[in-house]
Amino acid sequence: MHDNKLDNPESGTATPRGPDTKLDYHEIPVIDWRLSETDKPRFLRELRDAMINIGFLYLGNHTVPKDVIDRVKEMAPKFFDLPPEAKDALDMKNSAHFHGYLKVDPSNTNDTDYNYRDIREQFNFGGARECHWRDGDPEYLKLHGEALWPPEELLPGFRDTLLAYYNHVEDLSYKFTQLVSESLGLSPEALDVFFDEDHQKLQPRCKVLRYPGSTDGKLGSGIGAHVDGSFLTYLLQVTDHRTLEVQNLSGDWIPVPPKDGTFVINLGKTLEKVTRRVLPATPHRVLAPTGPPRFSIAFFSSVGLDVKLAGHDLDFPPEVLNMKAARDKKLGVSGEFAFSEKDNELSGEVVLTRKLRSHADVAEKFYPKLFPKYYPNGRPEKPVTGRKEFK
Ligand SMILES: [Fe+2]
Known about the structure:
Largest sheet: 8 strands, mixed
Distance between the termini: 22 Å
Number of strands: 12
Structural class: alpha+beta
Bound molecules: fe (ii) ion
Mean pLDDT: 87
Number of helices: 10
Order of helices and strands: EHHEHHEEHEEEEEEHEEHHHH
């Protein structure tokens, strides 16, 4: 199947993938984190090949403790068993920071091109961070702030378990980013320019996703082909469903089944831009599961809110540029990468615009100065929330 159509408009277009190329891998490599200590040249070589030529990898033997993973896998799905009123109290419309509960009910959206009939649910959260926005500050500083959590008595240990997981993955993400930098022939710190020094203006985000399975002839729900807007995405597949697929460079869809003890890592559009497409974002999709619902937890690393993606030029060595050129030649991609206008804007402004366009209710309640700009005719009758934020 050679379906290049993407349904994530804010993420832009993906690098073309077509049937004429020879880069048709059929398995996703497992990169062993321990090699970064025992045989670093091999680790960096394998990582570089996976990043440049595949764009998806499993990371095994990583630094997040097994008991932290086991606890979050057990705890995270419980959120969706809360009574509807408890979940609704945590609805994203109550968060200036776009955290909280999000559900997409196909009967109540304009998402007519989606072939599903059941409700998809998501719980969005971030680290324990205070909002420093004060009247007169740029509005995008409101993106930063504490998540909405269910009361402890309703779900004892939920907040602590999810935050412990989040903190471990965030720590892993900074270390892994330095290894990615080294694998591209740069200094370990070369990508740090996109992250502020003390990480106080960063807000990586995490989502627990529930995909309803198909039962009794009722359709389940997946996610159509898209690329992530993140820097890097670290995915934990909680259930055993084999419904995640990645598109290889020949345009074929390759399954990414769950593998115990690993994260699935894929490249986002932000990383594609700052590397000027040395590392292109990878199209992937989730097929509608059959049977019980599928759960996964995605961690999206992000750049500083006051960083401009077009603001820094990375000095790649010739061997990396040659690998990129060889790949692009096989793909039939020509021409230099060009930044778009918004790549010269602050990342916080770009992210806020995207979120305000997807969440009119949050815009109206928490961003009254910006609301008329995006909704000159008032709040739309049906929520616009849907595909754009449901990744
Ligand atoms: Fe995704």
